[in-house]
UniProtKB/TrEMBL annotation:
This is ABC transporter ATP-binding protein. Keywords: ATP-binding, Nucleotide-binding, Transport. Belongs to the ABC transporter superfamily. GO terms for molecular function: ATP binding; ATP hydrolysis activity. The keyword Cytoplasm does not apply. PROSITE patterns: ABC_TRANSPORTER_1, ABC_TRANSPORTER_2. It comes from Actinomadura craniellae. InterPro entries: AAA+_ATPase (IPR003593), ABC_transporter-like_ATP-bd (IPR003439), ABC_transporter-like_CS (IPR017871), P-loop_NTPase (IPR027417). Pfam families: ABC_tran (PF00005). The lineage of its organism: Bacteria, Bacillati, Actinomycetota, Actinomycetes, Streptosporangiales.
Amino acid sequence: MIEVTDLTKRYGNTLAVDALSFRVRPGSVTGFLGPNGAGKSTTIRMIVGLDAPTTGTATVGGRDYRTLPEPLRAVGTLLDAGAMHGGRRARDHLRWLAHSNGIPARRVGEVLDLTGLTAAAGRRAGEFSLGMRQRLGIAAALLGDPAVLILDEPVNGLDTEGIRWVRGLLRDLAAEGRTVFLSSHLMSEMEQTADRLIVIGRGRLLADTGMREFIERHSGERCRVRSPEQVRLGGLLAARGADVRPDTGGLRAGGLPAAEIGAIAAAHGIVLHELTPLLSSLEEVYTRMTETAVEYRGRAA
Ligand SMILES: Nc1ncnc2c1ncn2[C@@H]1O[C@H](COP(=O)(O)OP(=O)(O)OP(=O)(O)O)[C@@H](O)[C@H]1O
């Protein structure tokens, strides 16, 4: 569990994080979203003790990260995959990390296997592609078999196969009961990977909710309707205030819940062949929600 309570960070006149409170629970993949400059990195840095809060607290498993005796065993982090020593061989990099955190050396082979890097283990990290460096960063995060994982843009630079692999891995780790917290600007990927979301804007909490709930709540009411009496039904729906447009082989009706459309059709003896509520994508919902946060930042800049 990650717990952030009334967390605030001020850099001079900039309020980067503003009285933020949320919990990231075990057993789920929780996505962390917000426009550029929203305060995500600052929040993550405070959680992992790289930056001190101005006020408030951030704990991991109930403790301040900086008081953890062997942090890698409690929390695995991937913050900047480019930040490793380029001259060091991948296996040596992991051995050194394991050694300095009291982790048995055999774990190095396990995480190399898990991340598909066994064949490349003797190569220098500086020769690695961005995707391989991401894998090595993930291997390092998993080294201590931690209950909590915090990953900033873990799929950055990965190809389609790599992205699918990370998705499966994170979902498996959550299914094992771990706490998985990740940020990404790739909305379609986030939609497929995360089951919960924390959204921030201008350093403040905008949403802390399940992925499905978030999309359903902000999708608006839109349905695809097909009927052999399409024209008559369209007229009836429009008369009730729906925004009715043609759609492939049917109609698209906005502004009325599916139940009401079904009731209108039934009341007029109209047969329905399809009545499907249409959900927006995470990207559409998220863009709508954060518009004000972006506008504010644009003006401030
Ligand atoms: N070390 C610092 N000194 C001064 N201002 C900072 C510092 N770090 C961050 N900020 C400011 O704090 C605000 C939040 O930045 P932060 O990097 O946390 O946002 P972010 O959500 O991670 O953005 P991005 O998606 O672009 O990575 C920004 O206005 C940024 O300019």
